[in-house]
Amino acid sequence: MTRAARRGVRRSGGFSPEQIAIGLAIAIYGSALILGGALRAGGPSPGPSVQAAASEALPSPRESANPIRAQIAAILEIDARLLEARTELRGLLARKDMRGSDVAFVMRRISQSLALGPDRASQLSADPTTKSVGAQLEILYGNASTTTGQALDLAIGSDDAYRQAAQDIVDLFADLPSIDAHLQEILTGASPTPEAGASSSPSTPTSSGRPTRSPSPTASSTVAPSVVPVTDPGERLVDPGFENGLASWALVLASGADRATAASDSPLVGTGHSLRVDVTASDGGPAAIGVAQTGVHLQAFAKYLATITVRSSVARQIEIRVVGPNEEPYAVKVGDVSPTTSIVAIEFTAVADEPAATFRIDIDGPAPGSVWLDAASLALQATP
Questions:
Q1: Quick one: how many helices (H) and strands (E) in the chain?
Q2: Does residue 320 contact residue 361 with C-beta atoms inside 8 Å?
Q3: Is 196 buried (19+), middle (13-18) or exposed (0-12) by CB count in 10 A?
Q4: What 8-state DSSP symbol labels residue 379?
Q5: Residue 135 belongs to what H/E stretch?
Q6: Residue 72 DSSP SS3
Q7: What are the domain boundaries of the chain?
Q8: Among candidate residues 353, 309, 307, 364, the one with its CA nearest the CA of residue 330
């Protein structure tokens, strides 16, 4: 086509291919500018990866932790160490050749265990649901800190002063098992129980420890033998009546200085047999001589009642203990026994699932004599 012909086409209103292409490019570029401005005005739209990251950054709708439950769990761990120290001090007090340096060693451990106790107790005091038990622990921890501090300031060789300090701690910690039982009930959401130290019916076993210097009417650990259950489907012990002697039990002698034998004898209640432990020599420690059954299964947060029917030829004390494989205390109960048949009992809540707990009956004191055991029980209690 000649240049004249092409000029004729343009004058007639037609567009060349170059003009059409340029026009389309301008239109597309303009649309992009308008759309980009709108996106900038409205903010960036997050892509799938940005949205996923944002969703991961937000906390999931989980149940918030209860700080009081955490404080209670921590206090139970502190109290377990304090009760272990109490047992050691009782063993030292039973020795005629007790040395103040041995007491000082235990006092240092108590002082370390108490480091966070007062602060955690004050947090319980600030909560309406645990105000009373928190205040009780504040006083107990405060008195214990004062006693241990004074003991650690004693001069070497002040054995009599160390002995008095050890006895003060033993008496002071006597209420810890009942306090811990109350805390465990709060921790598991069980119905409230009377405050530690409050009076209750003598026929209802309580979880108080060794009687304090001002014992309440419930400090006694004995009840009438007639209340012993005959059969309990929740029983966790094998041969709880000692019908087969030591077949399912073991006689425990802590050291070579301890001498004792065990044999079947006439029953203390009902029919069948009892187990008679004849003590001929003992160093007097609280766990020097005992009878134990291992491999007991405890279910976490379940409530149990531990009992033993007992008689002794001489006045002395025995101690029920339910402990884990590393001596973690689940329950401790000290009771006075005599030639009159009685029952020592403690109710407690297991704080963890434990397939290998041990049920022990420990015989305290160095005095020789016989102790009869019958109708032992570690029974799971029905949920109300």
A1: 9, 10
A2: yes
A3: buried
A4: E
A5: helix 131-152
A6: helix
A7: 68-192, 225-384
A8: 353
Q: Which of 251, 276, 252 is nearest to 266 (CA)?
A: 276
pLDDT, tens only, 118-139: 888 888 888 888 888 888 898 8
Q: How far apart are CA 47 and CA 83, in angstroms?
A: 60
Cβ-in-10-Å burial (0-12, 13-18, 19+) of 372 comes to: buried
| Residue 265 · residue 372 · CB < 8 Å | yes
SS3 360: strand
Tell me which of 1.10.10, 3.40.50, 1.10.3470, 1.20.120 is the CATH number of domain 68-192. Answer: 1.20.120
Q: What amino acid occupies position 212?
A: T
Sequence letter at residue 4: A
The model's pTM is 0.43
- Rounded Cα–Cα distance for residues 313 and 368 (Å): 9
Mind listing the pLDDT tens digit for each residue in 235-281?
999 999 999 999 999 999 888 888 999 999 999 987 889 999 999 98
Query: Which residues are CB-contacts of 245 (< 8 A; sequence separation ≥ 6)?
Result: 262, 263, 264, 273, 275
- Token code pair at residue 338: 């005599």
Same fold, 68-192 and 225-384: no
255 closest CA partner among 283, 276, 279, 277: 283
Query: DSSP 3-state assignment of 18?
Result: helix
Domain 225-384 top-level CATH class: mainly beta
384 vs 382: CA distance, rounded Å: 6
DSSP letter string over 136-204?
A: HHHHHHHHHHHHHHHHHTSPTT-HHHHHHHHHHHHHHGGGHHHHHHHHHHHHHTPPP-PPTT----TTS
Q: How confident is the model at residue 232 (pLDDT cuts 50, 70, 90)?
A: low
Report the distance separating Cα 308 and Cα 250, nearest Å: 16
Q: Are 283 and 366 in contact (CB under 8 A)?
A: yes
